[in-house]
């Protein structure tokens, strides 16, 4: 079910969190062959980034569309079918049962792999209560991982610090993708539950999403290669 990882570079997904296609194109050019997999979220996606996604895919790169979809089933299924037609490798949806089932229907037998977001990492117990939920974060994450698995989703996005627990619930065959990755000594920014690339892979992550430690580095390609070296060291130690 998970994406077969034939190229070890594919384990690193660089978040193109940039305001314009021009800025993203220049970063992609700087990164060159060091990076094979890019994530496009709201900021770049709503600034023309889907056209860039098409170009990256035509150029042999993989693209993760991180729009975290959640709507009525028909709309989700059709949106996901469009992302499959675009040639995206990963797309995110919120882990609500109707949304999960609709996304799986929209994906059909395409190569697109669906990732479920269980509880946003910026939410704590008080935020869930304020949103009207009775269960806490841990219980809600666990329930949604199981529901995502049962719906036929291909993987989960979670904090590296949750990866071990998620792996137990998810089983060995689906992907775990973790943001919140910070090489030793890097600024954490607004990320609260962070881990190094080495620790995230050791906790069971298949792919790491890294934004600012690479995007804002003085030498982004060197920063990307350093993360990949840490990933390789963690896999070798497994
Ligand atoms: O710059 P940084 O490495 O923190 O970027 C992490 C990326 O992963 C951002 O694009 C962010 O939107 C995304 N993300 C996250 N936490 C989640 C889900 C996605 O940081 N739970």
Q: Can you characterise this structure?
A:
With 238 residues, the chain is of the alpha/beta class. It has one domain (8-237): Alpha-Beta Barrel (TIM Barrel), CATH 3.20.20. It has ten helices and eight strands. An eight-stranded parallel beta barrel has the order 1-2-3-4-5-6-7-8, surrounded by six helices. Bound molecules: cytidine-5'-monophosphate. The site of cytidine-5'-monophosphate has 14 residues, from β8. Cytidine-5'-monophosphate binds next to β8.
Could you list some keywords that capture this structure?
single chain; 238 residues; alpha/beta; TIM Barrel; eight-stranded parallel barrel; 16% strand; binds cytidine-5'-monophosphate; orotidine-5'-phosphate decarboxylase activity; decarboxylase; pyrimidine biosynthesis
């Amino acid at each position: 079910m998970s994406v077969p990882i034939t190229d070890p570079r594919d384990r690193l997904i660089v978040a193109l969190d940039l305001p314009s296609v021009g800025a993203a194109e220049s970063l992609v050019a700087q990164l060159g062959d060091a990076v094979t997999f890019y994530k496009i979220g709201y900021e770049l996606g709503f600034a023309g980034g889907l056209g860039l996604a098409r170009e990256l895919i035509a150029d042999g790169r993989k693209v993760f569309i991180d729009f975290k979809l959640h709507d009525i089933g028909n709309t989700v299924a059709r949106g996901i079918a469009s992302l499959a037609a675009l040639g995206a490798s990963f797309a995110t949806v919120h882990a609500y049962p109707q949304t999960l089932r609709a996304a799986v229907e929209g994906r059909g037998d395409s190569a697109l792999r669906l990732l479920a977001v269980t509880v946003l990492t910026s939410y704590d117990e008080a935020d869930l209560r304020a949103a009207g939920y009775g269960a806490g974060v841990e219980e809600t994450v666990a329930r949604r991982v199981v529901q995502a698995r049962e719906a036929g989703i291909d993987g989960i996005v979670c904090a590296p610090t949750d990866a071990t627990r998620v792996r137990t619930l998810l089983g060995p065959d689906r992907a775990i993708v973790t943001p919140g990755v910070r090489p030793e000594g890097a600024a954490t920014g607004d990320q609260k539950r962070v881990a190094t690339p080495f620790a995230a892979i050791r906790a069971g992550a298949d792919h790491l999403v890294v934004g600012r430690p690479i995007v804002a580095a003085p030498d982004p390609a060197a920063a990307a290669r350093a993360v990949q070296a840490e990933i390789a060291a963690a896999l070798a130690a497994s």
